[in-house]
Write the structure tokens for this entry.
Amino acid sequence: MQSAHPGEVTVLLQQIGNGDSHAVDRLIPLVLHELRKLARLQLRNERSDHTLQPTELVNEAYIRLVRDQARDWQSRAHFIGVSASIMRRILVDYARRRRALRRRGPSSSAVDAEHCVALSDQQAEQVLTLNIALDRLEEMSPRQRRVVELRYFGGLSPEETAEVLNVSPITVKRDWLVAKSWLKGQLRNQPVG
């Protein structure tokens, strides 16, 4: 793995935002390790035998990130935060396809089933239940939802999260505690399955 000096990732992200297609080629070796770590975080609660591996999640997320070259990248933490959000959406999409296949029953094609085996029925429902709870949290406090996304799904520290959200680390810590408590209550009260 290549190591980047501080700020190099941010400079490359800004160059990408300015249309420098060569910056993408220089960026990937610098962030690949972090994206794989992020993918492992995203998949930590999934079955060990599922077919969606961290590398595949990284690849799918990278394709979506590259399509979004017009984004005004602020920093490495911002990039990781957006990556976490994209990976979570990919897993939600998998869960939705899994649920749709289950509802269609045995007439589902093998090709459709192959795309959804990354999640068991119960795991798919848990991903969707969490997504609904996060949507509810967004209605109440968009910043708390972002804190959860950046801390839990992105693995960012309170300081990195504060940088992305342009707030103090103390605010992040407070939002994190409130949001975790609220989500636990929501998930405890939601039937799974």
